[in-house]
Design brief:
Helix 1 packs parallel to helix 2 and helix 1 packs parallel to helix 10. With about 260 residues, the protein is α/β, with parallel strands linked by helices. Helix 3 links the parallel strand 3 and strand 4. Helix content is about 40%, strand content about 15%. Strands 1-2-3-4-5-6-7-8 form an 8-stranded parallel β-barrel, surrounded by 5 helices. It binds 2-phosphoglycolic acid. The site of 2-phosphoglycolic acid (PGA) has 13 residues, from strand 8.
């Protein structure tokens, strides 16, 4: 019922030529995939070149951030329609690095998501607790607050186009993946909040897990009932590695 969506978040890695080398090596490995949606989120400078290289392939393009304004005197910012112009279908908003390093708030994320919908794009909205919040037993309270704030401006009629990403901050770039039990517990909670907010349409919203996803742990995560995809940083930078992730095959028993 929910088509899996696996996205590569390249963060601040890869020049245009490095990005194109990735696409050249990656596309032949995923051409036959039909059941899953594959998304690449290069840095802004490589969006157009990667979009062109992807051409009519099955792989879609995403930005890593966006400005909530449609145009104007906002030095250094990129508007949703500029992303649409270079072929983006998605943009990541509210990534924990944006929240922690650049002061992004739930209200700001809500405005970005609204602006993306208005320009015909789909947001990938990230939420997740820090280690301190988890250890203090505040995980659900934090996720609930982030969801309520970040999704406040999602048009009801477009709810199904939304993609959520649960990324526990303590699992990002640390090699410390959430256990399947933790991931499913939070994903089920996110689903329940989405149903409260959007009704039955929420059963069709895809929820990605993010945080040290690797070729060898993606199978167990994707097997979980409420995990509908992955948002992958480090392990998405190498084409062979990300190609294995988007297939999420069962790792060999004896590995
Ligand atoms: P990671 O990053 O896969 O390197 O942990 C995930 C993310 O930040 O989206």
């Amino acid at each position: 019922m929910r088509r899996p969506i696996l996205a590569a978040n390249w963060k601040m890695y890869k020049t245009v030529s490095e990005a194109l080398a990735f696409v050249e090596a990656f596309l032949p490995r995923v051409r036959d995939l039909e059941e899953v949606e594959v998304v690449l989120a290069p840095p802004f400078t490589a969006l157009e070149a990667v979009g062109d290289a992807l051409g009519g392939s099955v792989v879609k393009l995403a930005a890593q951030n966006v400005c909530a304004e449609s145009e104007g005197a906002y030095t250094g910012e990129i508007a949703p329609r500029m992303l649409a112009d270079v072929g983006c279908s998605y943009a990541i908003v509210g990534h924990s690095e944006r929240r922690q390093l650049y002061g992004e708030t739930d209200e700001g994320v809500a405005r970005k998501a609204e602006a993306l919908f208005a320009a015909g794009l789909r947001p990938i909205v990230c939420v997740g607790e820090t280690l301190a919040e988890r250890e203090a037993g505040r995980t659900f309270e934090v996720i609930e607050r982030q969801l309520a704030g970040s999704l406040a401006r999602v048009p009801e009629a477009r709810a199904e186009e939304l993609v959520l990403a649960y990324e526990p901050v303590w699992a990002i770039g640390t090699g410390r993946t959430a256990t399947p039990e933790i991931a499913q517990e939070v994903h089920a909670f996110v689903r329940e909040r989405l149903v409260k907010r959007f009704g039955e349409a929420a059963r069709r919203i895809r929820i990605q897990y993010g945080g040290s996803v690797k070729p060898d742990n993606v199978y167990a995560l994707m097997a979980l009932q409420d995990v509908d995809g992955a948002l992958v940083g480090g392990a998405s930078l190498d084409p062979a590695s990300f190609a294995r992730i988007v297939r999420f095959e069962r790792p060999e028993e004896n590995r």
